[in-house]
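Question (not urgent): is this output format expected?
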Amino acid sequence: MTSPHGDRVRPFRPFRIDVPQADLDDLHARLDRTRWPDELPGVGWARGVPRGYLRELAEYWRHSYDWRAAEARLNEWPQFTTVVDGARLHFAHIRSPEPDATPLLVTHGWPGSIAEFLDVVGPLADPRAHGGDPADAFHVVVPSIPGFGLSGPTRDTGWEFRRVAAAFAVLMDRLGHRRFGVQGGDWGAAISRELGRTHPDRVIGVHLNLLPGAHATTEPTPQELAGLSPRERERTLASWRRHQEWTRERQGYADLQSTRPQTLAYALTDSPVGQLAWITEKFKEWTDSDERPEDAVDRDLLLTNVMLYWLTGTAGSSGRIYYERAHAGDGGTRPQPSTAPTALAVFPRDNFIPLRHLADRTDTVVRWTEFDRGGHFAAMEEPDLLVGDIRAFFRHLRTLGG
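Got this back:
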């Protein structure tokens, strides 16, 4: 395979998802033999995923969900693998029919996957076919993070987000995309932001639906609050309250994956219902949902995401990114300043409330959009809102000559 200019051979291998039937038969047999725990009456979601709900979801997974249909949909994307920094890297590369399209790297997080973007890639790559302006077209690159799904498992230590960002810069160079935009949420936000910070000459703009380090992690002082507008003061107090609630009630998964991911991996790799529960809980707690995750995310799409972890056995290797970040030894987790033009799309039911005055300390924020609905998995929950904001941001940068 050559670059668009035919200058040199690129080390890519075409890839197509083709799961052996034996793996699906094994999944079904394991689901049939599930050993269910007891449950206290009337506790709902407060102590984890309710047994009645999970049994219903597992039954649907076993008898109604169609992996082959999901596999065929994913295979509509041209996919490849390459080796970067010793890791096998899987990615989809969807070229726009518009010749002047902007290259755009979109990156998922945990417990997400490339399936997050199934409803946004088409409108991004071919806006003309989706009622949009062809000037807003993108050549879309969708990688699986090393250690996650089809890019996993990793075979050595050290794969925290900065190393991932460096690998993705190599990938974009191999694809012939010298200048490109980036987009991401969750770990994808950290990776995308790092790409913009370390490669400001190459990254046109950074679009995020989560901004690392932009929420209140310490109680705001009266002096800090006094210098803010009434609205930002209210948001700061709300951000601090949400952070306290997060630390008290919701951080356990991250603490476990930051300290003993290998121990957890045995349970999640052996039990499909265990893997299902571990991921489904986050889709309930982190989305704009009321009673169940399906209030926000299509059930089949949720299960496709779970399948990309189960079929690849990457519950453990995907969790390692938390361990590597916690043990990186680089003197702290506060983001280093970035000069890359940055946009933040704020969805109200995401995990943290971002604060503009904190964001402006470390990031060059040129667009800040607050929506009235949506949560952590923006591309799955509100694809139209996310696509519209990405288009508007890069359209703005084009008017500036970026």
